Amino acid sequence: MRNVKPTNNFRDMYLRGITLGGQEEVIYEETDSLKIARAFRKAGRGMKHE
Fold first, then answer.
1. Cα(19)–Cα(29) distance, rounded to whole angstroms?
2. 1: burial class by Cβ within 10 Å (0-12, 13-18, 19+)?
3. What span, in angstroms and rounded, lies between the C-alpha atoms of 10 and 37?
4. Is the pLDDT of residue 10 over 90?
C-alpha cells in the first residue's frame, strides 16, 4: 500500500482501501455470497440435528 507510515493504523488503512479504493494493487476480491451460502448448506447436510 502507498503512503504507509509506522504510526498509521493499518486496520483502518486496509478498510479504507477496500471501501474507497485508490490503491494500485488489489486489496480484496469481492466474495461471492452464493458460494458461501452453498458451502453452509452443504456443511449442514452432514450434521445430525438433535
1. 12
2. middle
3. 30
4. no
